[in-house]
């Protein structure tokens, strides 16, 4: 990760003025102050568990408390961030990953300091091979340029079943797929933060959090870059 730090700061030293990732106007930041102020922010009140905007506790979480204890999320899944993420995930274009990572870093700076490590939501081997990279790890690269960052661990959990249309499954079908994650290490008593790009549905994060809690994790929280406000399941 020191390499990541050196690479990034060498690039920024050589390029003090860069185009804003959104408006393309040259400035000193990955996202300029104006574009930052125009982004759709996930404001309070929002659900303490899943960060859904509207109330301190949403109906879904009141009905069934999720396995994760809290969600950090500052942005709504809306233009231009959703399009930037789409380019990264489905067009394999990493040009926006630093800027999106810069925004994710702002949210990660609010995470509890006693967090032991970060787990990016893993992809199955099939998905990883098809895409060539895990987009969450790409987003975490900017965070990893910070010298005091919480360790990011990719080997703790594996995704052992590919679930290409997981969001489209109904509750019974999703429950039948509980064993999609396998915990590979002893995590007893650890405070863990799961990081994901967007909550298409809370089920993936919830299934992972359940697996981590079953393996002995003390606290499991979630940090997502963006949150959808419709199609909640
Ligand atoms: Zn801008
Ligand atoms: Zn909720």
Can you walk through the features of this model?
The chain has 233 residues and is α/β, with parallel strands linked by helices. The protein contains nine helices and nine strands. The protein has helices at 2-14, 33-38, 59-63, 81-90, 97-108, 125-131, 135-143, 171-175, 202-214; strands at 18-19, 26-27, 70-72, 75-76, 117-120, 157-159, 181-183, 191-198, 219-227. Strands 3, 4, 5, 8 and 9 form a five-stranded parallel β-sheet that branches. Strands 1-2 form a two-stranded antiparallel sheet. Strand 8, helix 9 and strand 9 (219-227) form a beta-alpha-beta unit. Helix 5 (97-108) packs across helix 7 (135-143). The longest helix is centred in the first third of the chain and has 13 residues, at 2-14. The mean pLDDT is 89. The site of one zinc ion has 7 residues, from helix 3.
Short description:
By secondary structure, the chain is of the alpha/beta class. The chain is built from nine helices and nine strands.
Task: Label this structure with key terms.
9 helices; alpha/beta; 34% helix; 5-stranded parallel β-sheet; 233 residues; binds zinc ion
Q: H/E element string? A: HEEHHEEHHEHHEHEEHE
Number of helices: 9
- Unreliable stretches (pLDDT < 50, length at least 5) are none
What global shape is seen? globular
Judged by helices, strands and strand pairing, the structural class is alpha/beta
Roughly what percent helix?
25-40%
Amino-to-carboxy terminus distance: 37 Å
How much is the average pLDDT?
A: 89
Query: What is the quaternary state of this protein?
Result: single chain
Share of residues in strands: 15-25%
- Which sheet architecture does the biggest sheet show? 5 strands, parallel
Bound small-molecule species:
zinc ion
The gyration radius over C-alpha positions equals 18 Å
Overall number of strands: 9
């Amino acid at each position: 990760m020191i390499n990541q730090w050196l690479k990034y700061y060498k690039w920024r030293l050589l390029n003090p003025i860069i185009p804003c990732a959104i408006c393309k106007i040259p400035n000193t930041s990955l996202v300029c102050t104006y574009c930052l102020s125009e982004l759709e922010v996930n404001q309070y009140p929002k659900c303490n568990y899943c960060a859904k905007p509207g109330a301190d506790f949403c109906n879904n979480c009141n009905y069934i408390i999720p396995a994760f204890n809290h969600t950090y999320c500052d942005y709504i899944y809306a233009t231009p961030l959703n399009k930037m993420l789409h380019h990264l995930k489905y067009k394999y274009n990493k040009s926006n990953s630093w800027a999106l990572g810069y925004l994710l870093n702002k949210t990660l700076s609010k995470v509890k300091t006693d967090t032991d490590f970060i787990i990016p939501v893993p992809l199955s081997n099939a998905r990883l091979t098809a895409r060539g990279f895990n987009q969450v790890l790409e987003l975490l690269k900017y965070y990893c340029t910070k010298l005091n960052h919480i360790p990011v661990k990719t080997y703790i959990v594996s995704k052992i079943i590919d679930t290409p249309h997981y969001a489209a499954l109904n509750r019974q079908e999703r429950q039948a797929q509980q064993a999609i994650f396998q915990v590979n290490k002893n995590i007893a008593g650890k405070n863990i933060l799961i990081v994901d790009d967007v909550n298409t549905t809370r089920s993936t994060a919830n299934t992972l959090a359940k697996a981590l809690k079953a393996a002995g994790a003390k606290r499991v929280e979630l940090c997502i870059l963006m949150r959808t406000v419709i199609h909640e399941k």
